[in-house]
Design a protein that fits this description.
Number of strands: 0
Radius of gyration: 19 Å
Oligomer: single chain
Largest sheet: none
Shape: flat
Number of helices: 3
Helix content: over 70%
Order of helices and strands: HHH
Length: about 120
């Protein structure tokens, strides 16, 4: 750490070193799914319909992921508090929910990107 670096910037740097590769990995996985689904649907649909369907499904995954991710962040402590109050242990934690929906959101984004790229490659 340099003299002018604050502890907050060091923590942010550590978080970014973990989050950026993870987001890139799930983005790549989603893009592969988007391309594979678009190409797979070419067997039964027109190129435009195949890429449109793949794009719509990816957008559905992305939308669900972002909505659930924000809900986990906003209501996570409340849900954990209710579980503790009711003495119910389901194993659900705010951190695990955020991680799961992080994966779903970035995969959905990659899926949409892969479907759009396939559409461009097919010229539709």
């Amino acid at each position: 750490m340099t003299d002018d670096a604050s502890p907050g910037s060091a923590a942010l740097g550590r978080r970014l070193r973990v989050l950026v590769p993870a987001a890139a990995r799930w983005l790549a996985v989603g893009a592969a799914v988007g391309v594979a689904l678009s190409v797979g649907l070419l067997a039964v649909r027109t190129p435009r319909a195949a890429t449109d369907t793949a794009f719509a499904l990816g957008l559905l995954v992305l939308g669900f992921g972002v909505t659930a991710w924000s809900t986990a962040i906003g209501l996570g402590e409340t849900i954990e508090g209710v579980q503790a109050y009711m003495d119910v242990s389901s194993g659900w934690t705010e951190a695990s929910a955020r991680e799961a929906f992080f994966v779903l959101s970035w995969s959905g984004f990659g899926w949409v990107f892969g479907a759009a790229a396939t559409s461009l490659a097919l010229g539709v």
